[in-house]
């Protein structure tokens, strides 16, 4: 719909149709859980990774579609340790099973992939990876998925109609760097044979593929706690560059005041189980799931001293449209975006 409005029906390409449409090979299954494990290699600006996609069949399923940018190569796809045949058409990957999986079954496939993801020179207006160095001479890497989608850097069902109920994200980086992603950091594996350190993040709330993000650098972690009179304690985490640490410690003191004010007006912060994380990025942030890309320290907004946390859509129904929109979520920094979300289910606790 959005492609048609902006470009006109006659100008929508076959690739865009494959990406935007909820066709029979997307509508025949529902994703419940992703396990994303990716190694980020700054020297070659490349990725090596695996994705295990857990899903429930909505009909007898013999073929399904997943999505991945053409720059990235799929090595193998397996189901119950058997290699599956697949074919690619632009960003779409059609996976064929040896026999139909009955309706209502829980299943999973494992996808191995590698390659150089698309790069951006103008994030977030242009999606892709931003590879650069910070003032300390260390790598500073971030992904802007707003235009490329989640499939710009990892294989997934990249359609707004479906959200995983939960997710586990493992990011391996050179040991002098820290990898920040959505959710809560649960462990750091330091004894890898390749000398990389692996940061494991747990997402407990339903998440859109486009909202899965990563930022990498030699970050300093500043921790704090917001104490809500009604909802308990919320963990606050600020990952900033060493050169910005002093500014950040003073700057982010305002967060608890903002949260308390918004809580009185809007209600509970929607990603409570996943924490509240702000990360120092080289470009302005848009929306994210409990992870706020923040570019104020880079000089993009030199005269501003505010940050806007993600919040629920209840205010949207008051300020913008009808109360029927209360089933949607709203995130806002620095722009407002609406995202469809499906109801919570028991699978939301799967990433434990």
Structural key phrases:
352 residues, mainly beta, Zincin-like, 8-stranded mixed β-sheet, 4-stranded antiparallel β-sheet, 5 helices, globular, disordered N terminus
Largest sheet: 8 strands, mixed
Shape label: globular
**Roughly how much helix do the residues carry, as a percent range?**
10-25%
Rg (CA only): 20 Å
In DSSP terms, counting alpha (H) and pi (I) runs of 4 or more, how many helices?
5
- Output the helix-strand order: HHEEEEEEEEEEEEEEEEEHHEEEHEE
What name does CATH use for the topology of the domain at 220-349? Zincin-like
Q: Strand sequence of the main sheet, in spatial order?
A: 5-4-8-2-1-11-14-13
Distance from N terminus to C terminus (CA atoms, Å) equals 37 Å
CATH class of the domain at 220-349: Alpha Beta
- Average predicted local confidence, pLDDT: 83
Beta content: 35-45%
Going by helix content, strand content and strand pairing, the class is mainly beta
Unreliable parts: 1-9, 301-352
Tally of extended strands? 22
Please give the CATH architecture of the domain at 220-349: 2-Layer Sandwich
What does this structure look like?
Helix content is 11%, strand content 42%. The strands form five sheets. The protein has an eight-stranded mixed beta sheet with strand order 5-4-8-2-1-11-14-13, with no helix packed on it. It has a four-stranded antiparallel beta sheet with strand order 9-10-15-12, with no helix packed on it. The radius of gyration is 20 Å and the shape is globular. The N terminus and C terminus are likely disordered.
């Amino acid at each position: 719909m959005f492609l048609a409005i902006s470009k006109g029906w006659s100008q929508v390409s076959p690739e865009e149709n494959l990406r935007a449409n909820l066709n029979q090979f997307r509508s025949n299954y529902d994703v419940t859980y992703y396990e994303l494990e990716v190694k980020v290699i700054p020297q070659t600006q490349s990725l090596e990774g695996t994705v295990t996609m857990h899903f429930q069949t909505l009909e007898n399923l013999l073929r399904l579609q997943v999505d991945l940018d053409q720059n990235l190569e799929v090595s193998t796809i397996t189901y119950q340790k058997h290699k599956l045949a697949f074919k690619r058409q632009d960003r779409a990957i059609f996976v064929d099973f040896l026999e139909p999986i009955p309706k209502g079954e829980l299943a999973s496939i494992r996808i191995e992939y590698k390659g150089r993801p698309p790069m951006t020179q103008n994030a977030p207006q242009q999606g892709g990876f931003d590879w650069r160095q910070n003032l300390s001479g260390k790598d500073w890497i971030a992904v802007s998925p707003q235009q490329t989608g989640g499939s710009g850097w990892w294989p997934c069902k990249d359609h707004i109609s479906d959200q995983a109920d939960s997710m586990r994200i493992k990011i391996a980086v050179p040991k002098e760097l820290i990898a920040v992603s959505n959710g809560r950091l649960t462990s750091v594996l330091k004894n890898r044979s390749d000398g990389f350190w692996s940061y494991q993040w747990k997402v407990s709330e339903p998440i859109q593929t486009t909202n899965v993000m990563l930022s990498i650098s030699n970050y300093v972690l500043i921790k704090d706690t917001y104490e809500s009179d009604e909802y308990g304690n919320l963990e606050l985490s600020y990952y900033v560059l060493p050169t910005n640490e002093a500014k950040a410690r003073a700057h982010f003191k305002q967060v608890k005041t903002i949260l308390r004010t918004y809580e009185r007006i809007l209600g509970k912060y929607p990603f409570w189980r996943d924490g509240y994380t702000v990360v120092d990025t080289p470009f302005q942030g848009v929306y994210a799931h409990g992870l706020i890309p923040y570019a104020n320290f880079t000089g993009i907004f030199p005269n501003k001293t505010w940050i806007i946390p993600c919040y629920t859509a209840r205010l949207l129904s008051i300020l913008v449209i009808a109360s029927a929109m209360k089933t949607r979520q709203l995130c806002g920094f620095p722009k407002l975006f609406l995202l469809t979300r499906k109801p919570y289910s028991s699978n939301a606790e799967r990433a434990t």
